[in-house]
């Protein structure tokens, strides 16, 4: 496994653990300033600030736990993509029934000037599990 692949796997794990811990600042540090998040039926969410508002609002009343099964990592110079199977459980802090979502994701990462990989674009096809 290459150093780049190891760093990208570490980024994915840090993203999941920081989200579960409610550590929005760490999650934001893992993404490019111009990051874009795409999901079906919604306009793209663009930029750290937009993501921070959405995640902070979600974490106010919920805890998010995720499991990512990395299917593929391809590195080409300073760009890489990661394809995963993702399962997300959103549990209300107020006793409501947990929401389960799972599906495929495709993320594009960029090595930035400081040498760190950061998420640049993300598309997920998660669906609610009945």
From TrEMBL:
SUPFAM superfamilies: NTF2-like (SSF54427). Residues 8-119 form the DUF4440 domain. Pfam families: DUF4440. It comes from the Bacteria. This is SgcJ/EcaC family oxidoreductase.
């Amino acid at each position: 496994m290459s150093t780049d692949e190891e760093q990208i796997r570490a980024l994915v794990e840090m993203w999941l653990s920081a989200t579960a811990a409610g550590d929005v600042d760490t999650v934001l540090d893992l993404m490019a300033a111009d990051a874009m998040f795409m999901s079906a039926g919604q306009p793209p969410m663009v930029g750290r600030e937009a993501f921070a508002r959405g995640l902070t609002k979600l974490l106010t009343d919920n805890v998010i736990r995720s499991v990512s099964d990395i299917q593929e990592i391809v590195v080409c110079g300073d760009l890489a993509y990661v394809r995963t199977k993702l399962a997300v459980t959103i549990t209300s802090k107020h006793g409501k029934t947990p929401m389960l979502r799972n599906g495929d994701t495709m993320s594009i990462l960029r090595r930035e000037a400081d040498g760190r990989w950061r998420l640049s674009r993300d598309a997920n096809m998660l669906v609610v599990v009945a």
